[in-house]
Every structure is written in C-alpha cells, then in structure tokens.
Amino acid sequence: MITRNFDFTLPTYETDLYEIADLIEDYRHDPAKIAEADKWIAGTMPGEHYSAMERALADLHEVHPEDLLGSEVLRRLWGLAKVQAAAREEQFRIMAEDELRSMEERSSDHC
Questions:
Q1: What is the spatial distance between Cα 42 and Cα 53, in angstroms, rounded to a whole number?
Q2: Contacts of 89 (CB under 8 A, 6+ apart)
Q3: To bridge 49 with a disulfide, which of 2, 22, 45, 93 should be the other Cys (CB 3.0-4.6 Å)?
Q4: Domain-by-domain residue ranges, the chain?
C-alpha cells in the first residue's frame, strides 16, 4: 500500500503573490485606497500625456452626447484612461507589497 503525504502549502513567494493579488482586488473597491494610489501617481506621467488629456477633454465638450459613442474623442479618452489605469494598478501592487511586508514584520515581531 502506497501512502502519500499531500502538502498543499505553497512556497512563500507563490503564497505572497496570491496575497498581493487579493489585496489589489480589495484596493480596486476601496475608495480610500483608490485615492491613495491616485495621489501617489499624480503628476508622474510624461507631459505629453497630460497635454493629450487636456486636448481630449476640451474636444469632448465639442461632441454632442448622442454622437459620443464611436467617436474619435472617445477612442482617445479610452486610450488615456488605459494608461492611467495601468499606473494605478502598478501603484496598487506597490501598496500591496508594502502592506504584506508590514504584516509579515508585525507577525515576526510577535514570535
């Protein structure tokens, strides 16, 4: 008879990745964490990004709401939003790694 010991404990690195992913998912729905991430990334984009955003917003004003769907200005705004969202996600990752590190330090201090 063969007996097997199944250990489902993941290595620390892989476990950390799952915990970081869980924290990031929580952050996406937490207005305070969203504001914190946005504060960290504010002003960090290249100048052309902000110029393009200003142009797109000004151009948006010229498009009637009924004509917005499928418009060039909406496409440009979507592209700018994609860049902003990626920066926010990266900041969420940094924040989650920092939070996990802090939790691990507090945990090891109590041992």
A1: 13
A2: 24
A3: 45
A4: 15-62+69-109
Inter-CA distances, 56 with 3, 9, 59, Å: 65, 50, 5
Q: Which of 44, 18, 9, 13 is nearest to 96 (CA)?
A: 18
Long-range contacts of 88-91 (CB under 8 A, 24+ apart): 88/34, 88/37, 88/38, 88/41, 89/24, 90/41, 91/37, 91/38, 91/40, 91/41
Burial annotation 63-90 (CB, 10 A radius, 16+ → b, else e): eeeeeeeeeebbebbeebeeeeeebbee
- The count of other CB atoms within 10 Å of the CB of residue 91 is 21
Tens digits of residue pLDDT in 88-109: 999 999 999 999 988 888 877 7
Q: Determine how many CB atoms are found less than 10 A away from the CB of residue 14.
A: 10
| CA 51 – CA 66 distance, rounded (Å) | 26
Q: Look up the pTM and report it.
A: 0.78
